[in-house]
């Protein structure tokens, strides 16, 4: 992108391809949409948001098995949809939103008004019932007022709200106690046509209090149950999304409007993405036109728009939003076509700069293609490109990065800086279930990693570097505060994740209570500081065999011998506690192929596949020859209160 191109104003719609929906319809009419499903994600990525529900209606008509034949690598997400009223209209937009993220929806829509029975129905393993990945329970105003008769007063609504909240609380508790997976609820809109049936203004105000108390009770369920998420519809309605369409509500019992269901579907897709470990970690930003107004190379530090004037204030506000994200563990980096010294000086000295040079884990200011700069940043951080979001105001640069690096999420911000925050936050790229200490410390740890890389350059061999690193590894059962981080490792780790089993906090805690099962947290530190909790092992006794059901390790600590040390500790523990063998299981995923041979490299022998899942490979170690942990590290291992410390 030239500096002249930087100054060309682009309309907000120019990033969107108005012909995408027509192309999708053409494939559908030709009967080739299932066959060409591999092109759908790209079409949807540039489709105007208003067209997505229509696209979803087309996609939802396809036969799921036919799509899977043509796109066997696409993950299928099973979602049960239930609710107070007609909920089927959410399937179309939800199909499109998931397809935008490379996911196929398998929807199971419950009958009208059956949500209480659906939530309280116990799971029946004997029936071979497969649990959905999550359940959407769509609530609306009828949840509260459906049983009222005219005339009614605010006190009647208060009584009904208390009754319904108690019923929902019991139903949610039953659903979670039965171990039926993630449950998504939503707050309930209060409609004008309902409030204004009360002509007494004080009674109307009382009704508002009652309604907000009901919604507050719903939101509190997420704090009480780690397996519950509540989507707050108020912020969506506050943006002008209509809550309901009176005719659809009356005649079709569809009591949430189609635009609101479309936004609800988008929020639900963000939850699914987080559930599958697809939360992004790094935000790479352009500078000119993105972080500040103007062109630094032409206008100089004193001439850029930042902090002064209406547009300058808008750019400063965007930087404050970025700082808020960074404070919660989002890594900020820069890829800008600019002079490096000028950028460094501006970040350090500009009086209105909210973000300073030290707020970025890396700054690439040069004249290289931006997709090459993103690859460089990913390599320096040791993260996959599917952990990245790239934001730029240039249509050209956004298009080029999207073409060259399809794994990267591209956010095109336009010429209006006041809209930058909403453009960045629209897709919830950084949403996660629970913020942990590891998240809050992430930026500092990556800065420390840069010091390790500098230390590495002082050695002629990698082994000499490891010998000088002073690495110390500790294996022990997690304390209660560690459970969220262990869960997060299973949810967000994709590369070194040998069985790719996603577990929430209650599931991790349950594993620790079962006889013969072990959950082991892996901690690491070295001369530069504490890496924190970087891995998790899930072990299970099966007669005389100790099984490694799953093993996940953060990509931050690859290739330092930690993974080999963990296996050595498990083998020694198995031998000393009377086991005759250790079995490991590798389940291929799109991201863990690099570690398919890991168990073989640790002395295990492949012994067959899983009859229930032919892709899974089993390995076995007979414990006759146990290799020691790598000599360059100190290992401490305790597998339970009766095992002692095995160093």
What does this structure look like?
The protein is built from 27 helices and 18 strands. It is of the alpha/beta class and 647 residues long. The protein folds into 4 domains: 14-73; 75-275, SGNH hydrolase (Rossmann fold, 3-Layer(aba) Sandwich), CATH 3.40.50; 282-425, Rossmann fold, CATH 3.40.50.1000; 458-637, Gcn5-related N-acetyltransferase (GNAT) (Aminopeptidase). An 8-stranded mixed β-sheet has the order 16-17-15-14-13-12-11-18, sandwiched between helices. The protein has a 5-stranded parallel β-sheet with strand order 2-1-3-4-5, sandwiched between helices. Strands 8-7-6-9-10 form a 5-stranded parallel β-sheet, with helices on both faces. Residues 1-13 and 642-647 have low confidence and may be disordered. This is FkbH like protein. InterPro entries: Acyl_CoA_acyltransferase, FkbH_domain, HAD-like_sf, HAD_sf, HAD_SF_ppase_IIIC, SGNH_hydro_sf. It comes from Streptomyces davaonensis (strain DSM 101723 / JCM 4913 / KCC S-0913 / 768).
Short descriptors:
FkbH_domain, alpha/beta, 4 domains, disordered N terminus, Rossmann fold, eight-stranded mixed sheet, 647 residues, disordered C terminus, five-stranded parallel sheet, Acyl_CoA_acyltransferase, HAD_sf, 18 strands, FkbH like protein
